[in-house]
């Protein structure tokens, strides 16, 4: 298990400028041209540059805030994934798996010109740089990067299931995502605000003093 000492930065990961405190909830709002899935399957998806990409970040080993911060910069270090908004950081009760430390979770909203499979490869390469070792399903991890949504794609491919098959039941995904994009839609489930209202938000606490950042 484990791997990254506290404060370790992934090799080559740039620092993100623009980090600010997160005292009031919303950090950044998706701009109107964000290519988002639509709540109704009958209406056409909005057009925009690249595909919408939502990534859930999680860490419960080592310096969790630093892992999220550095993981975010590593995902964004090439221009083919462009950040649109990032949530605040939340401390969350572990869901499933063995007894383990609380997680820090956050959500990145981005647009990308990469195919979905290439995004998965990028995420797994970044996880590997953070010393992620897969020993146990739902076990503790230095950094977990889950693709929550890629455009309005729906797939049951076990290698890349879209949307993420458990996103709709996880407040640690839904709450930060909603904060970063109040109009978010989870394909197949509807508006994230409604999904979260049905699910409840127990066990998910915003950390006002922990910040991520977006590139300037
Ligand atoms: N995979 C399929 N679809 C996707 C997708 N949309 N995004 C495949 C990313 N990966 C996807 O993932 C296992 C396999 O899922 C990969 O080979 C990939 O091809 P993994 O990251 O190796 O293992 P995992 O994360 O332990 O498994 P899993 O089932 O993805 O777990 P989850 O659902 O990610 O849950 N509690 C709190 N509070 N916060 C957390 O962040 N995370 C988990 C992990 C459990 N409990 C948690 C948290
Ligand atoms: Mg995962």
Domain module tally:
1
Class computed from helices, strands and strand pairing: alpha+beta
> What is the overall number of helices?
4
CATH architecture: 2-Layer Sandwich
Rg on CA atoms, Å: 16 Å
Kindly provide the name of the CATH class: Alpha Beta
Task: Describe the structure in brief.
It is built from 4 helices and 8 strands, in the order E-H-E-E-E-H-E-H-E-E-H-E. By secondary structure, the chain is an alpha+beta fold. Strands 1, 2, 3, 4, 5 and 8 form a 6-stranded antiparallel beta sheet that branches.
Task: Name the features.
216 residues, alpha+beta, Alpha-Beta Plaits, six-stranded antiparallel beta sheet, 4 helices, 8 strands, 20% helix, globular, disordered N terminus, binds 6-(adenosine tetraphosphate-methyl)-7,8-dihydropterin, binds magnesium ion
Overall description:
This protein has a single domain, classed as 7,8-Dihydro-6-hydroxymethylpterin-pyrophosphokinase HPPK (Alpha-Beta Plaits, 2-Layer Sandwich). With 216 residues, it is of the alpha+beta class. The longest helix has 14 residues, at 116-129. The protein contains four helices and eight strands. Strands 1, 2, 3, 4, 5 and 8 form a six-stranded antiparallel sheet that branches. A two-stranded antiparallel ribbon has the order 6-7. A hairpin with a 3-residue loop joins β6 and β7. Residues 144, 146 line the site of magnesium ion.
